[in-house]
Amino acid sequence: MAVTKAILGKWLVAQKRHRLSDRQVQMARELGLNPDKLGKIDNHRQEVWKAPLPQFIESIYFKRFKREEPETVKPLKQIMAEMEAKKKLQKRKRRSVRCSRKRVLI
Length: 106
Hints:
With 106 residues, the protein is mainly alpha-helical. The chain has helices spanning 5-18, 22-31, 38-41, 53-65, 76-105. The termini are far apart.
């Protein structure tokens, strides 16, 4: 599934709401968790048997991948900036191809 700006925006909101670090957000994304459903997993201080969300994410990440943290951690803002740069580059390429076609036709 392609990562879109809207999905990354949801992750930014979830990161702020649940006070997650960039590392924990990266782990949750690799696990395939839904940012909209993190509130159900989060401990609301009423359920003493539940682990806090950051610890829960780290524990299931270790169970699944057998490592403590992701190999590379990128902040969401950096990923969004890279997507924008890539998009601008693709637009420039398309424009140059269109201009070269027009010149050939004339």
